[in-house]
């Protein structure tokens, strides 16, 4: 079930948005209290934070960065006036859209769905990138250890890799961990 957290200074707006999203099957929490919203957002871990830029005021972008640091939520601002200061503040955030008030409920729903899909794609890509970076780092250990075996024991690349693979299986370690251990040991003894 998708989770949405709403921050707005107007109780009527909160009530209307809560009904909209609950009727669409979302789990919804909301507050007018800007001071308590950060702790509640962290606890609730929403997929989307729908926030009134006017309610948060100048601290909107700081709050958005804090939210992005603790949760993978998309942040969708509702704003009365879009000016250069607002647009510049969006830079560097994972805000995928904003809504200019007044706004229809259909537009809120469509834009929220768009933001949720976008944040899922970006989070998936970030996770894949992280895995690739880790894989590359692990591969570097294997390549460095192979080079050491090639130069020290006069082996070809295939023999060096086979030796490392056999050692890792004998020790019950993934090959990159064995290679890291061997390289750390080599550098300590040099």
Q: Please identify the top-level CATH class of the largest domain.
A: Alpha Beta
Radius of gyration: 25 Å
Outline, from the CA principal axes?
A: elongated
CATH topology of the largest domain: Rossmann fold
* Tally of DSSP β-strands: 5
Number of helices: 8
CATH superfamily of the largest domain: Response regulator
Q: Termini, distance in Å?
A: 56 Å
Overall residue-averaged pLDDT value: 89
General description of the model:
The protein is an alpha/beta fold. The protein has two domains: 3-103, Rossmann fold; 130-189, Winged helix-like DNA-binding domain superfamily/Winged helix DNA-binding domain (Arc Repressor Mutant, subunit A, Orthogonal Bundle). It is 66% helix and 13% strand. The chain contains eight helices and five strands. It has helices spanning 11-23, 34-44, 53-56, 60-70, 84-90, 105-153, 157-171, 175-189, and strands at 3-7, 27-31, 48-52, 74-79, 98-100. A five-stranded parallel sheet has the order 2-1-3-4-5, sandwiched between helices. Helix 1 links the parallel strand 1 (3-7) and strand 2 (27-31). The N and C termini lie far apart (56 Å). The mean pLDDT is 89.
Layout of secondary structure:
Blueprint: E1 3-7, H1 11-23, E2 27-31, H2 34-44, E3 48-52, H3 53-56, H4 60-70, E4 74-79, H5 84-90, E5 98-100, H6 105-153, H7 157-171, H8 175-189
Parallel strand pairs: 1-2, 1-3, 3-4, 4-5
Helix pairs in contact: 6-7, 6-8, 7-8
